[in-house]
C-alpha cells in the first residue's frame, strides 16, 4: 500500500486500523506498517494470527478464538501458549479476546483453521456462548471477502447482551456499510481498500452520517 493511500485511510475518520491477516504475516511486515500508521493519531490494533509477529507498540491486541474450528488448538491451545510466553508483557486493559465465527468456506482463514461451515442455529449458539458462557467482549462474524447475511447479523445482535458485535466481509460500497452497520456495532472494511480505495473510503462517511 502506498503512503498516499495509507494517509487517506488514517485520516478518513475511521475509528481504528486493524493490522492482521492469514498469509505471510511477518514481524518485519508488522513493524513496517506500525511505524507508518503511527504518523497519525488513529488508534492501531494488532489482531494476532502469528506468535512470531507479536510486538509492543499497538494500542490494543485482539486475540481470535475460532469457535467453529474442528481443532481445539484454534480455540484454546495457541492462546494458552501465547499467554505462557507473553504473560509478563500483557496489559489486560489492552488485550481483548474475540469469539470468532468464520462463515465463508472460501476464506483462507477458514481453511487455515480447519473450520466447518455453521448453519444459523450453530451461529446463534456460538453467539450465546460468547456472550453468556465465556463472557468475551467481542463476537466476530467473519465472512472474509464475501458479503454476509444482514438478517442473520440482525438476529445475532438481538441475542447479544454484553458482547460487542463485529462484522467483517465483502463490504465494498457505502450502501453495504450502511446496511450492516444497522445491526453490527462495528464493521470492518478490508479487501476493498486494496481493490478500490476511493469506494472503500466512502464506507466511513456512510456509517458516520
UniProtKB/TrEMBL annotation:
<dbReference type="GO" id="GO:0120536">
    <property type="term" value="F:heptaprenylglyceryl phosphate synthase activity"/>
</dbReference>
<keyword id="KW-0594">Phospholipid biosynthesis</keyword>
<keyword id="KW-0444">Lipid biosynthesis</keyword>
<dbReference type="InterPro" id="IPR039074">
    <property type="entry name" value="GGGP/HepGP_synthase_I"/>
</dbReference>
<dbReference type="GO" id="GO:0046474">
    <property type="term" value="P:glycerophospholipid biosynthetic process"/>
</dbReference>
<dbReference type="InterPro" id="IPR038597">
    <property type="entry name" value="GGGP/HepGP_synthase_sf"/>
</dbReference>
<keyword id="KW-1208">Phospholipid metabolism</keyword>
<keyword id="KW-0460">Magnesium</keyword>
<keyword id="KW-0443">Lipid metabolism</keyword>
<dbReference type="InterPro" id="IPR008205">
    <property type="entry name" value="GGGP_HepGP_synthase"/>
</dbReference>
<keyword id="KW-0479">Metal-binding</keyword>
<protein>
    <submittedName>
        <fullName>Geranylgeranylglyceryl phosphate synthase</fullName>
    </submittedName>
</protein>
<keyword id="KW-0808">Transferase</keyword>
<dbReference type="Pfam" id="PF01884">
    <property type="entry name" value="PcrB"/>
</dbReference>
<dbReference type="GO" id="GO:0046872">
    <property type="term" value="F:metal ion binding"/>
</dbReference>
Amino acid at each position: 500500500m502506498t503512503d498516499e493511500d495509507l494517509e487517506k485511510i488514517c485520516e478518513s475518520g475511521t475509528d481504528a486500523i486493524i493490522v492482521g491477516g492469514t498469509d505471510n504475516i511477518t514481524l518485519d511486515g508488522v513493524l513496517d506498517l506500525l511505524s507508518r500508521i503511527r504518523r497519525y493519531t488513529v488508534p492501531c490494533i494488532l489482531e494476532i494470527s502469528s506468535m512470531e509477529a507479536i510486538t509492543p507498540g499497538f494500542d490494543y491486541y485482539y486475540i481470535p478464538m475460532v469457535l467453529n474450528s474442528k481443532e481445539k488448538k484454534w480455540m484454546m491451545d495457541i492462546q494458552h501458549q501465547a499467554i505462557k510466553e507473553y504473560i509478563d508483557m500483557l496489559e489486560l486493559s489492552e488485550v481483548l479476546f474475540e469469539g470468532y465465527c468464520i462463515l465463508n468456506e472460501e476464506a483462507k482463514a477458514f481453511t487455515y483453521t480447519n473450520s466447518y461451515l455453521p448453519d444459523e442455529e450453530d451461529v446463534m449458539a456460538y453467539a450465546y456462548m460468547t456472550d453468556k458462557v465465556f463472557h468475551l467482549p467481542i463476537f466476530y462474524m467473519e465472512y472474509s471477502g464475501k458479503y454476509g447475511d444482514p438478517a442473520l447479523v440482525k438476529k445475532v445482535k438481538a441475542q447479544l447482551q454484553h458482547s460487542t458485535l463485529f462484522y467483517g466481509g465483502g463490504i465494498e460500497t457505502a450502501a453495504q456499510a450502511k446496511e450492516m452497520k444497522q445491526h453490527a456495532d462495528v464493521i470492518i472494511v478490508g479487501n476493498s481498500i486494496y481493490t478500490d480505495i476511493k469506494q472503500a473510503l466512502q464506507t466511513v462517511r456512510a456509517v458516520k452520517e
